[in-house]
Amino acid sequence: MSNDPKVLVALDFDNYDQVMALVEQLDPSKCRLKVGKELFTLFGPQIVKALVAKDFQIFLDLKFHDIPNTVAKAVTAAAELGVWMVNVHASGGAKMMSAAAEALKPYGDKAPLLIGVTMLTSMVEEELSQLNVSKSANEHVLSLATLAKESGLDGVVCSAKEAVMLKQALGHEFLLVTPGIRPAGTDRGDQQRVMTPAEAVTAGSDYLVIGRPITQSEQPIAVLDAINQTI
Ligand SMILES: O=c1ccn([C@@H]2O[C@H](COP(=O)(O)O)[C@@H](O)[C@H]2O)c(=O)[nH]1
Which positions bind substrate (predicted)? Predict the structure, then answer.
């Protein structure tokens, strides 16, 4: 299997034994793991260290959004944990993102990839007006992603629906990390801007964040293997 697996399994669990039981069945050559707000708030840096010690590459998805000094310190703490990828909200602005990028420079090629969150995949275009954003979803995502690139970030979190546009505008090297991935026939849950794994990769997604379709399945490994076959 690939040494650059595209699937990032979102470990959204509230039970340590359950998450570890799943992790024991997973193979670092077939997927990376995402630790988000639920798991981190419950089990803290220790669980990240435990997963790193099992040779998994970890996306620490805490979506930092704060003043530049605080975010710079937070991404430094993430780098010290040995994570592979960390993210900040692009709407925190250029100063905040640049401070995060600067803070990671001393880590050189050991620095985690720094990714900006654009528009959550649970949102539809109509919700932007509630935030006084008068752009279309595509325009809003493009403007946040452009700012992220100009601020020195490695890529963005977006929907795969925006992947073709972003690759054209920002180039192939700028990474696209896409949640809102749903294999055909599976429940969307609260996700709105969705694509199947194969559609997402064809559109230009570099990494697919997939949680419930794998973690809530009775046969998570079979689901992951089936997804990997299609991409
Ligand atoms: O725009 C975003 C940003 C982050 N997420 C996270 O990805 C996973 C998706 O899980 P599913 O169960 O596959 O829906 C989840 O941890 C979110 O916090 C996102 O969905 N959209």
Answer: 12, 34, 61-70, 121, 182, 191, 211-212
Crossing angle for the helix pair 137-150 and 94-104, nearest 10 degrees? 40
Structural domains present in the chain: 7-230 (3.20.20.70)
Series of mean pLDDT values for 10-residue runs along the chain (231 residues): 87 98 98 98 98 98 98 98 98 98 98 99 97 97 98 99 98 98 97 98 98 98 98 98
Residues at the binding site for substrate are 12, 34, 61-70, 121, 182, 191, 211-212
Asked if ipTM goes beyond 0.95, one says yes
Decide: pTM greater than 0.95.
yes
